[in-house]
Amino acid sequence: MRTMEDIASYLREYDGRTLKLMEVCGSHTAAISKFGIRGMLSPKIRLVSGPGCPVCVTPSAYIDRLLELAKEKDTCVVTFGDMLRVPGSRGSLSAARGEGASVEMVYSPLDTLKLAAENPGITYVFAAVGFETTAPVYTLLLEEAIRGGFTNIRLLTALKTMPQAIRNLMQEGGEIDGFLAPGHVCAVIGSDAFLPLAKEFQIPFAVSGFGDRELLLAIYGLVRMAKEREAAVKNFYPSVVTPQGNLIAKKKLETYFMPCDAVWRGMGNIPLSGLLLKDAYKRYDAGSASLIEDKKLNHGCRCDKILTGKLMPQECPLFGRSCTPGSPQGACMVSYEGSCYQNYLSDGGNA
Predict the structure, then answer these.
(1) Looking at the predicted structure, is the pLDDT value of residue 304 above 90?
(2) What is the DSSP string of 246-314?
(3) What is the pLDDT of residue 176?
(4) Which run of H or of E encompasses 126?
(5) Contact (CB, 8 A) for 295 and 301
(6) Residues 6+ away with beta carbon under 8 Å from 213
(7) Are 15 and 44 a contacting pair, CB within 8 Å?
(8) Are 56 and 310 in contact (CB under 8 A)?
(9) How confident is the model at residue 346, as a pLDDT?
(10) Parallel, antiparallel, or unpaired: how do β-strands 123-130 and 153-160 relate?
(11) pLDDT for 106-146, tens place per residue?
């Protein structure tokens, strides 16, 4: 069995065909930057970031709708902190809150229940953004809202599903040789969810955890598979991920949500890549189905190319100049999990 030293040496000295590998999890993007993983790899192993940050792929129309709701009488938008700075076509929630709009930041969707109970005359709209990882939490909020008889809780959803995005990326000429499959997503939907993609595009997937050793082990496995052109899915995160995933969480998603077409910021409309509340629960929806537009604020922004691995952040003409974490021009610079944000941190803001 190879030691971690052997694995690190193999990745550093790899001299086979050039491989372009993609991680599709925002937490992986942050961890890879934190541990300096790219600097441990041979120049022939190109590791690029994909559309794995839910905040980064949320379209501008969604933010615009939240801004409208936050300014309505007796309505309050409830959200996580990383959504506050995401730019829509008319500004951000943070700026709107400074101008008097009603916006509450929370750490859990379930905090909405307390707000709604204390202020029955106000409708609380939770900004339900995320992938398969966070979607089950919103089913818990719905269950509690129904059980408690709440009539002043709504969801504005921008929920995305990862396998369909990867299929679209490959169909659009992504030229990726292998994927680090998202560990958190796989914990819910299971590693087997990526088997059809491996077979369809003849590419490997490696499910990874989030520590430095876990990432290096998964990248090593992915390189070995890609080198041999092995179309398979291997799970390097067995302590959390199973082939079938979390059956209870998947059942809850099936109960409350149905697949729908969804707009991904920078990638356009991807068929059946979103989740929408079923008709039986439409009374808890705040108009999610109508959010189908993504207006590009700064036409110099290259987030669309960065999200699909066609460019590195430093190749965007705005990176580190007009686009910084303090003044983001595109969604990839807004979130801590965004590839531009992480590259800005790792290179000291040098364009």
Answers:
(1) no
(2) -HHHHHHHHHHEEEEEEEETTTEEEEEEEEEE-GGGGGGB-SGGG------S-TT--HHHHHTTSS-GG
(3) 95
(4) strand 123-130
(5) no
(6) 4
(7) yes
(8) no
(9) 81
(10) parallel
(11) 999 999 999 999 999 999 999 999 999 999 999 999 999 99
